[in-house]
Amino acid sequence: MDEIKQNQLAWSQLTQEHYQTFLKAFQDGTYRFSQKIEEELGELRGKKILHLQCNTGADTIYLAQLGAAQVTGVDLVPENIQAACRMAQELGVSNTRFFVSDIMELTKRHHEQYDLIFVSEGALIWIPDKEKWAQIVSSLLNPEGELYLNDAHPFFLIFDEEKFSKGELKVRYPYFETEPVVETGLGGYAGKVHAVEHYTWMYTVGMLFECLTKAGMTIEYFHEFDGYMCDIGGMEREKDGLFYSKKFRGKLPMTFSLRARKNSR
């Protein structure tokens, strides 16, 4: 798919900035998940974890530092995986491994199973086929293994970011859009915005639920939050690690977390 190749190229332009930003945060002792993610993840000791769309590996490394037995990071972009391996080595984290793969092609080359699959922060919109994605997730889980997903709420994704930063709500991306959304500005949360073409795919909450249940998984919870994972304009970070808008606090779902368990056979 040409869109996937273009996304691979687009993300490769952010690799060095992300690597430097996240490595510095680890070295400063400030890299961590939000309080909500850490609470919901629970005890990780002894678990074998797969981190999908791992970028330059920061979350993969942090999962390993939280006590997981082994954490495997997978990403589409070769430059990201090279940076992830370098970061793990520089930080002395040995219970991680990384490899390159399009998530949609992952099971063609990787057949291990995991106790937990971790997906977070801006991942799902890059997946063109959510039903196939859910099938892949299910196939890579041990019997009764779990998916933990924390991401931007699809309802919040419909709004124009520039208008939101000015305290206005204007629908820019239709909630029920089925065609890929084409944009040219990528990045900003860990470096500058790059003017590079890329493609994303909208989804609905109902679609996500249906895809996971069809794949043989039981949804254990779906939590919604009015805080966001980064500042998209006019927001302030609070002690829980999330960013909040004074004007829209308590009014809009901005992020969500979901836990789903593979049905035992």
Q: Helix and strand layout, with pairings?
A:
Elements: H1 2-12, H2 15-28, H3 35-41, E1 48-52, H4 58-65, E2 70-75, H5 78-91, E3 96-100, E4 114-120, H6 130-139, E5 141-152, H7 161-165, E6 181-187, E7 193-200, H8 205-214, E8 217-225, E9 235-237, E10 243-245, E11 255-262
Parallel strand pairs: 1-2, 1-4, 2-3, 4-5
Antiparallel strand pairs: 5-11, 6-7, 8-11, 9-10
Helix pairs in contact: 2-5, 6-8
Radius of gyration based on Cα positions: 18 Å
What portion of residues is helical?
A: 25-40%
Unreliable runs: none
Strand order of the largest sheet: 3-2-1-4-5-11-8
CA-to-CA gap between the ends? 34 Å
Task: Work out the number of β strands.
Answer: 11
Question: Could you report the average pLDDT, rounded to the nearest whole number?
Answer: 94
In brief:
By secondary structure, the protein is of the alpha/beta class. The strands form 3 sheets. A 7-stranded mixed sheet has the order 3-2-1-4-5-11-8, with helices on both faces. The longest helix is centred in the first third of the chain and has 14 residues.
Describe this structure in words.
The protein is of the alpha/beta class and 265 residues long. It is 30% helix and 28% strand. It has helices spanning 2-12, 15-28, 35-41, 58-65, 78-91, 130-139, 161-165, 205-214, and strands at 48-52, 70-75, 96-100, 114-120, 141-152, 181-187, 193-200, 217-225, 235-237, 243-245, 255-262. The protein has a seven-stranded mixed sheet with strand order 3-2-1-4-5-11-8, sandwiched between helices. α2 (15-28) runs parallel beside α5 and α6 crosses α8. The mean pLDDT is 94.
